Amino acid sequence: MILFEYTSRSLICQAYRAKIMLFMAKKARKKRGILVVVSGPSGVGKSTVVRRILKLNKNIKLSVSATTRPPRPGETHGEHYYFLSQEEFDQKVRNNEFVEWAKVHGYYYGTLVSTIKEQLIKGGTTVCEVDVQGAASIKEVLGKGKLKTATVFIFLIPPSVDILAFRLKKRKTENLEVVNYRLRAAIAELQVMEKYDYIVVNDRVESAAEKIQAIINVEKERTLLN
Predict the structure, then answer these.
(1) Are 155 and 200 in contact (CB under 8 A)?
(2) How does residue 141 score in pLDDT terms, banded at 50, 70 and 90?
(3) Which pLDDT value is given to residue 133?
(4) Which one, of 151, 154, 90, lies nearest residue 116 by Cα?
(5) Residue 83 in 3-state DSSP?
(6) Where would I find the beta strands (DSSP E) of 15-105?
(7) Is there a domain that residue 191 lies in?
(8) What is the pLDDT of residue 17?
(9) 1, 101, 133, 160 - which has most CB atoms within 10 Å?
(10) Helix (H, G, I), strand (E, B) or coil at 199
């Protein structure tokens, strides 16, 4: 009787061990990338928060967008954006090289399909920083099945509209007319936040980046279990 009990327990342990080994093997085989779309109104601090996330986790890669706007002080081609002429941008549009593109505040912005696929195929995490129009376009592409990947949409919001206005004016990269236009657009863009998977308040850059990092960790585990 005791021998049978011991043997039964051994068999149960072996069965559990086999299940665990099978689960780990499946996790290894199912290693796949995840696309993290960080969006929000102009002036909310998307670029600053994303840069902090990249410092927190070197394994997270940024999907560098293309734009026709001129570089701001300190921006580098290929690192912050791919700065293209209007002709170059139009050619890529005709070639269907963008997963999303839009005209924002007089300039064109787009996310290259090749950049995202190249990073996701390695099984890593790719952060895509886009405006509200860009995020909507990515959702549409995913819905049509043109890009198949686990994706999480995060909407970054300011603590208040007053702080948003202060941040826009603090940039000093545009004149007052452009700043006021961006502020009106930003207030309108806040209306779509409920369509996102997560909403993160950017009260402090460090805090916002840590929250998004925690979201990424949860979503990565979710993709492994599904």
Answers:
(1) yes
(2) confident
(3) 86
(4) 151
(5) strand
(6) 34-39, 60-63, 65-67, 81-83, 98-104
(7) yes
(8) 62
(9) 101
(10) strand
Number of H helices, E strands in the chain: 8, 9
AA letter at 102: A
C-alpha 1: how far from chain center: 59
pLDDT value at residue 40: 93
Phi, psi of 153 (to 5 degrees): -105, 125
Structural domain span for residue 138: 32-63+122-225
Mean pLDDT, residues 113-140 taken together: 87
Euclidean distance between CA atoms 148 and 100, whole angstroms: 14
Instruction: Check pLDDT > 90 for residue 84.
Output: yes
Average pLDDT, the chain: 83
In a domain, 17, yes or no: no
User: What is the sign of the dihedral through the CA atoms of 71, 74, 75 and 76?
Assistant: positive
Average pLDDT (46-68) is 93
Which CATH number is 144's domain given? Answer: 3.40.50.300
Rg (CA), the chain: 22
Q: In the chain, how long is the greatest CA-to-CA distance?
A: 88
pLDDT of residue 114: 84
Residue 39 lies in a domain: yes
For the entire predicted model, the pTM comes to: 0.73
Residue 12 lies in a domain: no
State how far the Cα of 128 lies from the Cα of 142, in Å rounded to an integer: 14
